[in-house]
């Protein structure tokens, strides 16, 4: 049974709603977007995962001339893959936000998200029937730094979470340093798609720059040079 058939009829007027945003970056397979209402109407055969992107405007300059733009948190997982804080939520016992906050408490220790932080939902690829919910919360740089410190003292640090990392949102003059190299890492599940989607939807990186960064990861890599290169 398809996802739409499993949900049943949508409320009157739903057909008039504007289309849901898509990523639209060449080289990145699209995931099927659905509204929060549609996601909540999915049948019991679907699992729900909830993850969160915490970010803050960052006025800093790398090497005194490369704008950092934002500080965006991700984490290195126990399996060596990059992902966002969060996990699966058992909808029999928890709301999406309660379940997400329960998992965040284990890995971060000092942040709680609400429905107001909800960003999007997507059906995932693969044999398992999973709908991935994504949240984003803008903080101050000081608040973000406090969370980074708290994460080191959380229950999961050194076990399921190897540490927090910040995503470089710039591209250096060699066209690889920064975001392109970061995107060349291995990501878990929908994490890479969610990162790119959030950066586009929240206007944190221009869409053409995202496309250039993705395209750069598909080219043969040149040997890295450890120098204070510029930025495009």
UniProtKB/TrEMBL annotation:
<feature type="signal peptide">
    <location>
        <begin position="1"/>
        <end position="16"/>
    </location>
</feature>
<protein>
    <recommendedName>
        <fullName>Tudor-interacting repair regulator protein</fullName>
    </recommendedName>
</protein>
<dbReference type="InterPro" id="IPR054754">
    <property type="entry name" value="NudT16"/>
</dbReference>
<dbReference type="InterPro" id="IPR015797">
    <property type="entry name" value="NUDIX_hydrolase-like_dom_sf"/>
</dbReference>
<dbReference type="GO" id="GO:0005634">
    <property type="term" value="C:nucleus"/>
</dbReference>
<keyword id="KW-0732">Signal</keyword>
<comment type="similarity">
    <text>Belongs to the Nudix hydrolase family. TIRR subfamily.</text>
</comment>
<keyword id="KW-0539">Nucleus</keyword>
<keyword id="KW-0694">RNA-binding</keyword>
<dbReference type="Pfam" id="PF22327">
    <property type="entry name" value="Nudt16-like"/>
</dbReference>
<dbReference type="GO" id="GO:0030515">
    <property type="term" value="F:snoRNA binding"/>
</dbReference>
